[in-house]
Amino acid sequence: MPRLKIAVIPGDGIGKEVIPVGIKALEAAGRQFGIDFDWVHFDWSCETYHRTGRMMPEDGIEQLSGFDAIYLGAVGYPGVPDHISLWGLLLPIRRAFDQYVNLRPVRLFEGVPCPLASKQPGDIDFLVVRENVEGEYSSIGGIQYEGTEHEVVVQQSIFTRRGTDRIIDYAFKMAQSRTAKHLTSATKSNGIYHSMPFWDKRVQEMGKAYPDVRVDQYHIDILTAHFVRMPEHFDVVVGSNLFGDILSDLGPACTGTIAIAPSANINPEKQFPSMFEPVHGSAPDIAGQGIANPLGTIWAGAMMMQHLGYPDVHDVLLRAIENVLRTAQTLTRDMGGNAGTEALGNAVIAEIG
Amino acid sequence: MPRLKIAVIPGDGIGKEVIPVGIKALEAAGRQFGIDFDWVHFDWSCETYHRTGRMMPEDGIEQLSGFDAIYLGAVGYPGVPDHISLWGLLLPIRRAFDQYVNLRPVRLFEGVPCPLASKQPGDIDFLVVRENVEGEYSSIGGIQYEGTEHEVVVQQSIFTRRGTDRIIDYAFKMAQSRTAKHLTSATKSNGIYHSMPFWDKRVQEMGKAYPDVRVDQYHIDILTAHFVRMPEHFDVVVGSNLFGDILSDLGPACTGTIAIAPSANINPEKQFPSMFEPVHGSAPDIAGQGIANPLGTIWAGAMMMQHLGYPDVHDVLLRAIENVLRTAQTLTRDMGGNAGTEALGNAVIAEIG
Ligand SMILES: CC(C)[C@H](C(=O)O)[C@@H](O)C(=O)O
Ligand SMILES: CC(C)[C@H](C(=O)O)[C@@H](O)C(=O)O
């Protein structure tokens, strides 16, 4: 009987409310396939930062390294600047464990009102593949003449051939495995002089190995417009760290699923643990009220099972989410219902059976 | 009788088709107020590049410097890489003439189908204020180990205190002049370590002089989502060069006006000529067919008149556009009609009276 060792970091705010529900759902689905879990909790958060001056202990990465995967709630709280909380936990984990792929599915579900006029469930079903460890997210650079009127800030983006090729190759593979076999690349080579023309060249080059995949590319400005105008056009969309970040929030906004979108931070080679989290943040405004929506966390858990080699568990969880959305009887406030976090979680678990 | 000296750069593709219509509309509206124009044409384009190896002559900037304004169609054509055509014309003009403000209005018009469900004309009316000369649009950086598997691309963004403060200050002033007095700042200080926390600090600092303006800020990822979910929330939105670029395409996509959006590249101090252009590109796929939509070019012309001190001419032009859209009888194909460029232009001119 397989036993999965999962590191759990609930984090801040509603992270602490949705993670327990995610765990319950995973246990219910795992049980059907004889899968057991060891959940080991880490209370790393902004609270920890207030107490210790660090988001996680110095040997935090080491502590996580033996796990099969990491299950993260959300990090960030008022009083701790974002760039401290995130560069102290989320971003170092992504990097230390070389989770260079960020996967974010975008789907229009039955039962979820679509903000776009005249789209039907089934019309929209695509995947954003985001580079997750280099590019525009960089702490390289600094400030000259700090604090004076002559201040100059230099911010560097770093794109390596290795880092660029491997994410593009991953995206091509994903596209090839799907029915539409269609890859869209996000660029901005008309404005950003060095990195983006390089990106385009690598897309062209890597594409040679995938003659059956249709490729197009759009500048990020018009691409965001196309997400609104013709979301059904997209199948797999690949972007740099920043562009992927933008597109993977915009995509779910177009399908009304921003509150339930999952994010998988993947090390495809499985040399290191991968990390799974909902896209939403810690939401201090509704924290503590028991009304947070746990579906993104459950969906992230489903992606974790897929990654760990249990696609059946993934499918059971996803079908349960679909069914709960379709009947729309037990939804949280953000989706127009009045159920609490636990009730919605229980509805999913009931569907799992 | 005022005589305005306008440099005209039709550029490539449909740029050459919409600019003549824009000129006719401006003449018609100007006539009502006794304003005359000298139009001086410059055939700078990708064609010029093919012939001469340059997008514009070496003394191009000098040639433009005596004009009251520049009226630009669109630049770019297949066979000339974007980063060459744009860094050879559009971007140097913006910089040489210190057009550090890019203004892009977003409006939901009566008669224009909205891609968002359940929005009404009047719900959406905001302005994107984009930094237009520094930031992420930078040719600083380069490639190490070029052409080998060890390639590393460094791409720098440069944010100066002066450049950041003046765009933020301009945005505050715009917000203060409007009814809602509401400014939204686009950031990404949780991922981009140096430049974006600096941007946030400057917003906070500059805001002190505008206690009557309500300020909020969103990370660019969730901000794009909010454009789709609650566009009525926004009044003035300020962003860096890249974020402003993205938001000013996404905004018009949300109101179905991407084909008719205008862009004003402004030097507020009027030390140098400002430049006015439609947001759309040269659209090689429909060029030469006489079906391009000229409304963005006319709207850009209206903004030119506003900038040059003739708000009445602006208003006449804008009302004409509104009326043509409302009756929806003479629209181009992109808006669901079957009129050509000239017919739509004539409809606007008829409305001008
Ligand atoms: C063509 C391109 C360089 C330009 C930009 O990004 O500035 C365009 O998208 C715009 O918004 O005017
Ligand atoms: C919190 C932030 C640093 C993070 C990111 O931009 O990567 C988040 O937006 C995400 O997409 O996971």
Automatic annotation (TrEMBL), chains A, B:
InterPro entries: ICDH/IPMDH, IsoCit/isopropylmalate_DH_CS, IsoPropMal-DH-like_dom, TTC_DH. Its EC number is 1.1.1.83. The keyword Lyase applies. It holds the Pfam family Iso_dh. One of its GO terms (molecular function) is NAD binding. It is an enzyme of class 1 (oxidoreductase). Transmembrane segments: none annotated. Residues 5-348 form the Isopropylmalate dehydrogenase-like domain. It catalyses: (R)-malate + NAD(+) = pyruvate + CO2 + NADH. Keywords: Lyase, Manganese, Metal-binding, NAD, Oxidoreductase. Its cofactor is Mn(2+); Mg(2+). NCBIfam families: TTC. Belongs to the isocitrate and isopropylmalate dehydrogenases family. This is D-malate dehydrogenase (decarboxylating). It comes from Gynuella sunshinyii YC6258.
